[in-house]
Specification:
Elements lengths: L1 H23 L9 E9 L5 E9 L9 H13 L1 H11 L7 E6 L2 H15 L1 H17 L1
Parallel strand pairs: 2-3
Antiparallel strand pairs: 1-2
Length: 139
């Protein structure tokens, strides 16, 4: 149990460092817009850290294009050395984990599920039932 707890704490610390670097140090034009680090998962042995990236479009309902995702991944890969160096400075480790960058697709999946639910018309049926119950309560 101790190892999982340590990798979780390390992942959270790496997330904080990378987020801070995005705000202050990394000035890559490919990272313009709303780019954030949603999570970092570190392997049990601490050799790899998967950094999950979220890119928000100009509109919340808008999905990020594949081209934009490729640009963002390329920008993070080019900044990988800087990020690892900063992690090494701020966290006392014998070995700084190798960073893998992936997109967090949970927002897109959530939008997809929301659209499916909206297309079912469930909310309208619930509202009609609520109106019937309030009318019968008044009688």
């Amino acid at each position: 149990m101790g190892k999982g707890y340590r990798s979780g704490r390390l992942g959270e610390e790496i997330r904080r460092i990378v987020s801070d670097l995005l705000l202050r140090e990394i000035k890559d034009p490919r990272l313009s817009g709303m780019v954030s680090i949603s999570a970092v998962e570190v392997t049990e042995d601490g050799s790899y850290a998967t950094v999950y990236i979220t890119v928000l479009g100009s509109k919340p309902s808008e999905e990020t294009s594949g081209e934009k995702k490729d640009e963002v991944l390329a920008a993070f890969k080019s900044a990988k050395g800087l990020i690892r160096r900063e992690i090494g400075k701020q966290v006392k480790l014998r070995h700084v984990p190798d960073l893998l960058f992936k997109f967090d697709t949970s927002l897109e999946y959530g939008r997809h599920i929301s659209k499916l639910i909206d297309n079912l018309g469930i909310e309208k049926a619930d509202e009609e039932n609520d109106e019937k119950h309030t009318e019968s309560d008044r009688s």
